[in-house]
Amino acid sequence: MTSPTQESASDLVRWAAFSCVLVPVVLVLYGTSLGGAAGTALGLAAVTGVCRVLLRQSERCAARTPAEESAAHRGRHSRTHSGTPRGGRHSGGTTPVD
Q: Where would I find the beta strands (DSSP E) of 35-95?
């Protein structure tokens, strides 16, 4: 079963695909060259494809449950190492600093 968000995203992609066909037809009717209309169609198709990929990625991220997120954040950095410095330069030690 799809969620309302997924349905609206797929509707958005359908409308974008429809515009990839409609816009060049209107451009030709108003006197634009076939080459110009074809270039516009290719540009719209490319933008639609990128938006579709980004929407799918966003849906996957939104579908993650809070338990998955908390488990993903714990990962290998879950242990605390008291007294162990974490990254960066350390000014202590026996070597002189110029």
A: none
CB contact set of 13 (below 8 Å; sequence gap of 6+): 48, 51, 52, 55
Compute CA distances 87 → 61, 73, 77, 84, 90, whole Å.
Answer: 29, 19, 13, 10, 8
Residue-wise pLDDT tens digits, 43-98: 999 998 998 899 888 888 887 766 666 666 555 655 555 665 566 665 666 666 66
Cα 93 from Cα 91, distance rounded (Å): 7
Residue written as token pair 């990962």: 75
What are the tokens at 9?
């995203």
Which pTM does this prediction carry? Answer: 0.56
d(CA 17, CA 66) in angstroms, rounded, equals: 34
